Amino acid sequence: CIDGAAEVAKSPKLVLERAAILYNLAVAHWSRGMLLPKADVEQIKTAARHFQIASGILDEVATFDVPAELDAKAPLPAELQPECAKALALTMLAQAQECFCDKAQVDGMAVGTRIKLLLGARDAYASASDAIAAAAASTPTATPLKRFKTWAEPPTRASQYKSEARAFWLAANPSPTPGVGLGLALALRAQGAAARAVA
């Protein structure tokens, strides 16, 4: 082992550089996922994979032990702070879940399956929304969070998928007064299945 190599590898500046490289790699995967058309099953699967990879990379960034400030003039970039990286990771994971919904639509899957996936997307975007709000509150200068919030719109998407799931359920159970108990049971069952699917 080269003398001093271990100390150099733990240098705050080197850790920061690694985190920055991984962040840029995550954004590259995210961008590729966003640019792929969602009308073809294989492209949807590829997009989902890109989002999943990006999410995993950002999860790794969130574990880096980067000092809050390297010095008084060089504060840690907001996107490399653990709260911000984790929020972005959850946003990209939600976008991967959205791809499953797109695939189900293109494949013409059964109503029950699509409801489960829609509720899964709702839950994923809700989690991303909560994480973004928490990170933004603790990191006032988190410009990347604001940008991703605008792009992904987690609160809007969560509400959208909840509405779509209800519409699918009503279409499958036409009735002027659909049973409240049945609807609740279906929603709870779907939530459990969605949670297992994204675990």
UniProtKB/TrEMBL annotation:
Domain BRO1 span(s) in chain numbering: 1-199
One of the GO biological process terms: protein transport to vacuole involved in ubiquitin-dependent protein catabolic process via the multivesicular body sorting pathway
Source organism, top-level taxon: Eukaryota
GO (cellular component) term, any one: endosome
Gene3D superfamilies referenced in this protein's UniProt entry, alphabetically: alix/aip1 like domains (1.25.40.280)
Alphabetized PANTHER family for the sequence: PCD6 INTERACTING PROTEIN-RELATED, TYROSINE-PROTEIN PHOSPHATASE NON-RECEPTOR TYPE 23
Annotated protein name in UniProt: BRO1 domain-containing protein
